[in-house]
Amino acid sequence: MSELDRRRFLVAVAATVAVTGVSWCSAGGPKETVARAEVPGSAPSPAAPLLPPLLSPPDRASRVLLPGGTVLTKLPGNGDLLAWTVDDGADAEVVRLYTQFAKDTGVRLTYFVTGSYRSWTEHAALLRPLVESGQIQLANHTWTHPDLTKLSASQVADELSRTAAFLRNTYGVDAAPYFRPPYGHHNAEVDRVAAELGYQVPTLWSGDLRDSAALSEDQIVRMALQAFTPQNIVIGHLNHPAVTRVYGQLVDVIRARKLRTVTLNDVFLRPEIPYRTSQPS
Predict the structure, then answer these.
(1) Are 49 and 11 in contact, with CB atoms under 8 Å apart?
(2) Contact criterion met (CB below 8 Å) for 260 and 54
(3) Is 229:207 a contact under the CB 8 Å cutoff?
(4) Is 225 exposed, middle or buried (0-12, 13-18, 19+ CB in 10 A)?
(5) Which of 54, 188, 235, 251 qualifies as a cystine partner to 205, CB 3.0-4.6 A?
(6) Whether pTM exceeds 0.90
(7) Beta-sheet pairing, 22-24 with 30-32
(8) Quick check: 74 and 206 in contact, CB under 8 A?
(9) Within 10 A of 214 (CB to CB), how many other CB atoms are there?
(10) Residue 59, number of CB atoms within 10 A of its CB
(11) What is the pLDDT at residue 43?
């Protein structure tokens, strides 16, 4: 992101908060009014409002054990946490802007990586520091995004193993135990093969931005108003640019609802799972 683009992005966020995002009623509580903010063409003036920081994630000592033998769709308990997860990576520019958004705002994200997309190599330098700090977590979304239920066991293993190897070699991370089957399609055989590779937690969702299709900006904001609720695991996608134009409004919803964004690693203790390191030739 150029310096000018960065300034415009930050001004857009500030304008959303100041004009359209969150107003305070006389009783002292937040009142949500989400609308599109115009992006000014110049740097913010000294009078521009300072944005409050996002709430910090829970202390790591409060993490809980992953539930065994179940599909993960929601965070446990009754709290103020939001697991914003983002899939695929078909559009390299969307991956770049999402990652810059995280860097600029502090929002915590879990990326479910489809390893064959060039975006994960092209923007590794931008992404790697956020992965190393734990602000962005990388998980496995297969190599080519097939319906795993239509593949043989060896093909399922190849899809997961290739992305696992890519993430280790490119980012130095082991993405296990979380995998998201493309389209949410999985069965007992898929889960068995995945578990043998260390991926014992099929991870689905309880809220959806619906942006796997090319939605309008207003539609994405409306979906966020429905999906960004406490303890939800929300799915978004790194495929279409409309979402990159409403980051200010999405983070407004998080601030207004006093939610804490978390990665899956922020919430759950990683189990000791034997990991098969052999890769397909």
Answers:
(1) no
(2) yes
(3) yes
(4) middle
(5) 235
(6) no
(7) antiparallel
(8) yes
(9) 10
(10) 8
(11) 41
